[in-house]
Write a structure and sequence with these properties.
The protein is an alpha/beta fold. The strands form two sheets. The protein has an eight-stranded mixed β-sheet with strand order 3-2-1-4-7-5-8-10, sandwiched between helices. The chain is 39% helix and 17% strand. The protein has helices spanning 17-27, 45-55, 69-83, 103-109, 132-149, 182-193, 217-245; strands at 4-10, 32-38, 59-63, 88-91, 115-119, 126-128, 161-164, 198-202, 204-206, 256-258. Helix 5 packs parallel to helix 7 (217-245) and helix 6 runs parallel beside helix 7. The two termini are 27 Å apart.
Length: 264
């Protein structure tokens, strides 16, 4: 039986961790487990997660003493999940912005794809309770990412996604340097460059009700800098390949596509 690990990084999510774990368990069957990766939250999030884990063997907790960003937490979760033999690994926020009720459909898509992206910016996707400037920032960032990298993915910055374990056999996780939200673009870019099959499916993203967003100007600047660097590097490699070998690099567009949700 295929098994799935939903990785939920937390830092000061005491009000959110129990509701999101409960919704995840209710939306899925017993083959789906949850790993809460807590970065030593001072508000007691880790203790709450431990209490949940004592109530059910479907929930596990990792306590980290270092806080090195969202990317570091996910990389630690991926390593734990692969070590424990899970077939699918899910990224999902703790704050309720990602609806776990989409998981059954996303996991079904992962049966025939390597990476499934929950997308806000394809037909059928939407955001709730965002001010106009947040939407413009996200749409603009994704537009710049598509242009800089030459990709077709509409929502490369989204954080609700499913990887298959076989995908990680072809993605160089050891080389991932980005730790903030650009981590999402980094993994999507690596998947496309590796020729993996990437699919987007529409989701509704809901702004958090409790707690404070970790988005900052430094995160935006890191993303723009790294995406620009990756795009330039790609074009230089393309030029070298054309001059030296008289051939183009494999397409980073052809393996990405969008699908309707299960109700469409």
């Amino acid at each position: 039986m295929s098994t799935t690990l939903v990785i939920i990084p937390t830092y000061d999510e005491a009000e959110n961790v129990r509701p999101i774990v409960a919704r995840t368990l209710a939306a899925t069957d017993d083959s789906v487990h949850v790993l809460v990766v807590d970065d030593n939250s001072p508000d007691g999030t880790g203790d709450i997660a431990d209490a949940i884990a004592r109530e059910t063997d479907r929930v596990h907790v990792m306590h980290r003493t270092v806080k090195d960003g969202l990317g570091g937490a996910y990389l630690a979760g991926f390593a734990w999940g692969l070590e424990h033999g899970y077939d699918k690994l899910v990224e999902m926020d703790a704050d309720g912005s990602h609806h776990p009720e989409y998981l059954p459909w996303m996991l079904e898509l992962a049966d025939s794809n390597d990476l499934v992206l929950g997308s806000r910016w394809i037909k059928g996707g939407e955001v709730e309770n965002w001010p106009w400037y947040r939407e413009m920032l996200s749409r603009g960032g994704n537009l710049y990412t598509r242009l800089a990298l030459g990709i077709a993915v509409r929502d490369a910055t989204g954080g609700f996604r499913v990887f298959t374990s076989r995908a990680f056999e072809r993605i160089d996780l050891a080389g991932v340097a980005s730790k903030g939200y650009c981590f999402q673009v980094d993994l999507c870019w690596r998947a496309l460059e590796a020729g993996l099959r990437v699919v987007e499916t529409p989701i509704t993203f809901t702004e958090r009700e409790f707690g404070v967003s970790k988005m900052s100007g430094n995160i935006v600047r890191e993303s723009l800098t790294l995406v620009t660097k990756w795009g330039i590097d790609r074009r230089l490699r393309e030029l070298r390949s054309l001059v030296k070998d008289h051939r183009r690099l494999p397409s980073v567009r052809k393996n990405a596509h969008a699908v309707a949700d299960h109700t469409g």
